[in-house]
Amino acid sequence: MRSVAVDGLDIDSHDLFFGSLVVNGVDVVPFVDAELNRQFPGRELQKAQTPEGLRDGWVAVQAAWETTVTNTPPELVDAHVEGEWSLAQTLRHLVLATDAWLRGGVMEVEQPFHEIGQIFTGAAEMGFDVSIFRGDEPAFEDILAVRAERQQLVTDFLTTATPDLLAEERDNPWGDGDWHPTVGDCVRVILEEEWAHLRYVRRDLALLA
């Protein structure tokens, strides 16, 4: 785009960090990434390559989530903005992410998903079996209970993870045979999901408050 008026332009993209965004000849992606790291201490560890770094990153993001969940008024846990997921739905999706990348990808459990998980939009059209997931809205207490189980699962896994284990190759749990992630890659995807959705939730709760 050339000679365009961009005053007030608001861009929100999870895919921003997989490419470049050039403004007046400057790639602004590294600046956005650095600012988000400043706003969310520990976020930079989502790219960690060592067991220690991943453990520290997991502790940081779980502490941030605990603050958000604890401080959210009960009347807002199911509220959402412009079709975005609510806090309750987001926590269900993080259950799904852990199930996919840790239970499915790393542990190679044949059917890794809990029924309370929130599948991503368009999954059925992409050929995924969504019948195992609940069609109703679970109680928030039930969501928190399953979420806590999955959080502990990641904590326990990282407690004993070694560099050799993180380097082992796995299949993509979503079935794309062109990419064979390492165990470390799978853990980093979980961390990326945790930080990205924390930002979305805090953004939306600020608008709803």
Q: Work out the count of structural domains.
A: 1
Rg, nearest Å: 18 Å
**Helicity, in percent?**
40-55%
CATH architecture: Up-down Bundle
Apparent shape = globular
Assess the beta-strand content as a share of residues: under 5%
The CATH superfamily is identified as dinb family like domain
Number of strands: 2
From N to C, what is the helix and strand string?
A: EEHHHHHH
Termini separation (Å)? 36 Å
Spatial arrangement of strands, main beta sheet: 1-2
CATH names the topology as Four Helix Bundle (Hemerythrin (Met), subunit A)
Care to describe what's here?
A hairpin with a 2-residue loop joins strand 1 and strand 2 (26-27). The chain is globular. 50% of the residues lie in helices and 2% in strands. It is mainly alpha-helical and 209 residues long. The chain has helices at residues 29-39, 51-71, 87-106, 140-160, 163-167, 183-208, and strands spanning 22-23, 26-27. A two-stranded antiparallel ribbon has the order 1-2. It starts with 21 loop residues before the first strand and ends with a helix. The mean pLDDT is 95. The chain is built from six helices and two strands, in the order ββαααααα. It has one domain (45-208): Four Helix Bundle (Hemerythrin (Met), subunit A) (Up-down Bundle). Helix 2 (51-71) runs antiparallel to helix 4 and helix 3 runs parallel beside helix 4. The relative contact order is 0.15.
